[in-house]
């Protein structure tokens, strides 16, 4: 069977089937209910753990328990003359609009008084209305509506068939509708009874009208109907000289409410307490503190007391005052804080691709790792989905992707169990162990087979890596690349072994070695420094050879350099791996630190870097033959203590007068740097830069050096000086 066909049948096809079935099930009502419930959990988590401060623009005036118990107001529903008094008093504070999430659709003898007070208040009022059957309300164009303020939206684009449609409307009658605008409070819950979406428009008699939230915003921003464009399935676009908003809606004109606050999260005041405070201040002329600052704000008047009828379930609570729906919509729009649904297609394609890859990858891996992957991916995905909602308000579906992924993992486990059962009788033995060459003599002399385990010893760890290997390796054919690597690695290995070091392993172009084990070497630090310098010298010879060979090698090869990192300290040395496959190697924090020296050498513009522990041990056994240059102190990734760094500068007999001058100026500049004398440091580093042995543009493969690195760094700290407790330590953010 061809590889591509085999991959399709064994891995891709099962992934397609599992995710296809999961996506199909996602269209069913019961799975949508579970998905919606998962969003509710995320919404509650965000509101509880990541609360935000509400805007001052939206203020709730609640018909709360205290208001209902106020004897001066009487029993609910109150006389409309009381609401007229309230409007007249609130008008003194000049809110931008007062929106009533309360229906006044039944004519009342006090409507005239209420309407007169609205005129006297001189503020914009939006009263609640709702869609109705033909025989229960008014129809657009009825004679009774000719003087009403209510007007439909005129700029509508898209198919209106999905917009909720009513033949008539139940709205306040004249004279209220002649002095107050009307916004529809229709907010039907979802299939599971939870109100997650709120309509911004409704359709009555073929015309499109704004709901209470949108009508309130129009008054707040002084919008006319022609300044509101409704693109069904896209957005409500609001534009005038002062505001521009793009409010996402679906084909039905529904807006996905980005719930952030419960009642306590908004600025809310009781109806009775607000009434009393304003009356005392402006009517009774008492010097009271007017806590409700209502000027220029949107006031939402609605029911908030338990026991009243205008309550329902939302993602934040099973018993929510529905006036909070309008409040959250208003705040979303004012903040441009919109919720969005993640696109299904990318999730489906990524899920199928990752699942197919996992089916192929884990088919011959340990069962433990498969189980870890199978449990870890859904967990990580759920966390990502939660964070997407918390920080970006993106609704990432959770249920059907995890269902598809889980089904594929179950399929993989079942297939694997069957395959392993068939192969059980074919297993006759185990793989042989691979033993490093350094242990062969010890094993022969001891007569004991190698065993897992290790002991702590002091060694010097050696790491080297070719600079820019990836950039030129891709330009070479495989045979020529192997030839190049063999030539380079032979030189490095020969030098390591000549100085008594032990080759640990090759990692591509990297060489890992140790000095001081398995054979003890008292001067292992000195030997490792000698190797570092000898490798650099031999690379000079190789570069010259490759350069003489001309176009056979790309420029990157002819300028090839190697970075080396060393560290001396205690490490665990021994046989490590599994019981059937292991290697004699080193591990521990000091080994990791040596690796950091190699990777960090690039940041300092050097090609052989070591720690202070190696320097001190080298000087103890090698006298002053090796010359070091101090580079500074850093805290490497994964550590908390600062480590002094040094460049292995060269053999003393090879250090010229110019190089000595460079070292002297560099150390003086470093002292100025630690003393926070930025100008002095810059001047001295500029002088040492001209004496550096490795100079960009002059030395092959060199792009920086320590003087250049410090010139750049000191210039930056001069512009943004460090705090007073600064000790000159660098924090190494990368490995």
In terms of topology, how is this protein built?
Layout: H1 3-25, H2 29-49, E1 58-63, H3 65-68, H4 80-90, E2 97-103, H5 111-121, E3 125-132, E4 155-157, E5 165-166, E6 168-170, E7 181-184, E8 197-199, E9 201-204, E10 207-210, H6 212-220, E11 228-231, E12 235-239, E13 244-248, E14 254-256, E15 267-270, H7 271-283, E16 298-303, E17 311-314, E18 317-321, H8 323-335, E19 340-341, H9 344-361, H10 367-392, E20 394-395, H11 399-423, H12 440-446, E21 453-466, H13 469-473, H14 478-498, E22 502-507, E23 510-515, H15 524-548, H16 555-558, E24 562-577, E25 582-587, H17 589-604, E26 608-611, H18 612-622, E27 626-635, E28 643-651, H19 657-674, H20 678-689, H21 706-719, E29 729-731
Parallel strand pairs: 1-15, 1-16, 2-3, 2-16, 3-7, 4-11, 5-9, 19-20, 24-26, 27-29
Antiparallel strand pairs: 3-6, 8-14, 9-10, 11-12, 12-13, 17-18, 21-23, 21-24, 22-23, 24-25, 26-28, 27-28
């Amino acid at each position: 069977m061809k590889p591509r066909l085999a991959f399709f049948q064994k891995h891709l096809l099962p992934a397609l089937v599992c995710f296809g079935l999961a996506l199909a099930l996602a269209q069913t009502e019961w799975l949508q209910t579970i998905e919606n419930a998962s969003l509710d959990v995320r919404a509650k988590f965000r509101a509880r753990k990541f609360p935000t401060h509400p805007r001052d623009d939206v203020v709730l005036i609640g018909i709360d328990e205290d208001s209902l118990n106020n004897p001066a107001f009487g029993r609910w529903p109150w006389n409309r003359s009381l609401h007229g008094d309230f409007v007249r008093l609130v008008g003194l504070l000049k809110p931008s609009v007062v929106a009533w999430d309360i229906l006044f659709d039944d004519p009342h003898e006090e409507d005239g008084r209420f309407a007169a007070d609205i005129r006297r208040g001189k503020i914009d009022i939006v009263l609640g209305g709702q869609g109705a059957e033909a025989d229960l309300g008014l129809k657009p164009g009825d004679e009774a509506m000719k003087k009403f303020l209510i007007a439909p939206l005129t700029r509508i684009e898209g198919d209106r068939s999905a917009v909720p449609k009513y033949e008539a409307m139940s709205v306040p009658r004249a004279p209220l509708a002649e002095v107050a605008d009307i916004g529809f409070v229709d907010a039907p819950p979802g299939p599971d009874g939870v109100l997650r979406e709120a309509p911004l428009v409704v359709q009555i008699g073929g015309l499109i009208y704004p709901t209470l939230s949108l009508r309130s915003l129009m008054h707040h921003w002084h919008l006319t109907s022609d300044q509101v464009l409704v693109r069904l399935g896209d957005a409500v676009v609001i534009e005038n000289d002062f505001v521009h908003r793009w409010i996402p809606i679906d084909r039905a004109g529904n807006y996905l409410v980005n719930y952030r606050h419960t009642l306590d999260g908004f600025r809310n005041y009781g109806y009775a307490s607000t009434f009393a405070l304003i009356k005392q201040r402006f009517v009774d002329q008492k010097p009271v503190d007017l806590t409700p600052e209502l000027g220029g704000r949107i006031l939402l008047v609605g029911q908030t007391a338990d026991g009243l009828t205008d309550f329902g379930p939302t993602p934040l609570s099973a018993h929510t005052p529905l006036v909070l729906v309008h409040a959250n919509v208003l705040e979303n729009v004012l903040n441009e804080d919109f919720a969005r649904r993640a696109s299904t297609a990318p999730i489906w394609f990524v899920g199928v691709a990752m699942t197919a890859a996992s089916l192929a990858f884990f088919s011959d891996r340990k069962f433990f790792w498969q189980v870890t992957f199978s449990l870890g991916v859904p967990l990580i995905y759920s966390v990502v989905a939660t964070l997407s909602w918390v920080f970006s308000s993106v609704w990432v579906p959770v249920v059907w992707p995890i269902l598809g992924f889980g089904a594929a993992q179950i399929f993989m486990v079942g297939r694997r169990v069957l395959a392993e059962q068939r192969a059980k009788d074919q297993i006759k033995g185990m793989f042989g162990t691979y033993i490093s060459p350094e242990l062969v003599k010890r094993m022969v002399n001891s007569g004991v087979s190698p065993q897992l385990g290790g002991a702590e010893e002091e060694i010097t760890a050696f790491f080297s890596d070719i600079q820019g290997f990836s950039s030129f390796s891709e330009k070479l054919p495989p045979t020529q690349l192997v030839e190049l690597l063999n030539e380079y690695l032979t030189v490095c290995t020969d030098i390591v072994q000549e100085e008594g070091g032990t080759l640990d392993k090759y990692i591509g172009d990297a060489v890992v070695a140790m000095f001081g084990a398995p054979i003890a070497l008292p001067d292992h630090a000195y030997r490792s420094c000698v190797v570092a310098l000898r490798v650099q010298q031999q690379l000079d010879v190789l570069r010259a050879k490759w350069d003489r060979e001309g176009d056979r090698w790309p420029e990157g090869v002819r300028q090839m350099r190697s970075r080396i990192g060393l560290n001396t300290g205690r490490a665990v040395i021994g046989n490590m791996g599994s019981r059937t496959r292991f290697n004699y190697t080193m591990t521990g924090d000091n080994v990791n630190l040596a690796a950091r020296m190699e990777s960090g050498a690039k940041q300092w513009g050097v090609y052989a870097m070591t720690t202070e522990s190696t320097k001190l041990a080298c000087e103890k056994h090698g006298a002053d033959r090796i010359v070091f240059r101090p580079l500074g102190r850093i805290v490497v990734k994964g550590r908390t203590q600062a480590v002094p760094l040094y460049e292995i500068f060269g053999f003393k007999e090879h250090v010229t007068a110019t190089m000595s001058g460079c070292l002297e100026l560099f150390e003086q500049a470093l002292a100025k740097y630690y003393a926070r004398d930025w100008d002095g440091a810059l001047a001295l580093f500029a002088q040492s830069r001209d004496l550096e042995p490795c100079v960009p543009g002059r030395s092959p493969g060199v792009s920086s050096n320590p003087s250049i690195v410090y010139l750049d760094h000191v210039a930056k700290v001069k512009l943004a000086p460090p705090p007073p407790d600064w000790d000159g330590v660098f924090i190494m953010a990368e490995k």
